[in-house]
Sequence to fold (83 residues):
Amino acid sequence: AASLLVMPVLGWAKLRVAAALGSRALRADAYETIACAWLSLTTLAGLGLNAAFGLWWADPLAALALLPLIVREGLEGLTPERS
Fold:
C-alpha cells in the first residue's frame, strides 16, 4: 500500500529531473518506478477482491490487466531509439 502512494510521486519527480538533465537512463528508471505503482495497484485490487468477496480469479485477472503495459514496454525496448 505504501508503494502505491510513494512510487507515483517518486516516478514523476524522476521524470522532471530526467528532462532537466536530458538523461535517458533516469527517464527509463522513472517509467520503471511508475510501472511499480501499477503493479502495486493491481496486486492490491486482486488480493482485496479475493479477500473481501472470495473471488479467487480476481488476482490473476488483475495481473492480466497489466498485459497492455507489459507488451508496450517490451515492444518499445525492442525498437531502436532515435536521438
The mean pLDDT is 89. The radius of gyration is 15 Å. The chain is about 85% helix and 0% strand. The first helix runs from residue 2 to 21.
